[in-house]
Amino acid sequence: MPSYDFALILSRPLYEDELDPLFDRTHGAVTVSIISEPQHADRLGNASCNWTGPTLAAAIMDVVGHVEESAPGLHVLRVEADPLLTIRDIAERVGRSLDSVRHAITGARGATGFPSSEMSTAGHRLWRWSKVAAWYGLDDPQLIEAKPTVQAINGWLALRDVVPDVAPAPEEVTSALSLVIPHVA
Questions:
Q1: DSSP secondary structure letter of residue 17
Q2: Chain mean pLDDT for the chain
Q3: Which residue spans within the chain are E strands per DSSP?
Q4: Which of 7, 10, 52, 81 sees the fewest Cβ atoms within 10 Å?
């Protein structure tokens, strides 16, 4: 089964005492933002995930269940499956050296027009994988699966929050998506 990278945007960060149940459920495959003081609970949290599943939808729904069951009152608000990458991450994914990627970014060698960075965190610029892959001319099957899957699951998450009695069960969403979205074999 393929392994998928995605992020969950949470209704709040987790408290330190909520980490053990999540770690036990996910065997450490989910990294989350944490807080130690309740006055910071008004911020959104996030969870970075690397999860194996038959499809991206199945992997996401599995982790959504684990995260929400491990921390009472915590809700997944949305999912992102087009990761932001550092220069090192890009080099690993495209099979190039760090210097080669730096030169591509600056236009020092070869083609110009490398995608702009999306954001900077802790002094590191980050690039959206879909834009980088397109620039290098790479076809990533997971990106093909990601766009419609994320759109459908985010719609389901929104519906679940607004009218939970109408929203289908996670298994129904996963099953429906497996019929219409090509997935990585």
A1: G
A2: 86
A3: 3-10, 14-15, 30-32, 34-35, 45-52, 76-80, 84-85, 119-121, 124-128
A4: 52
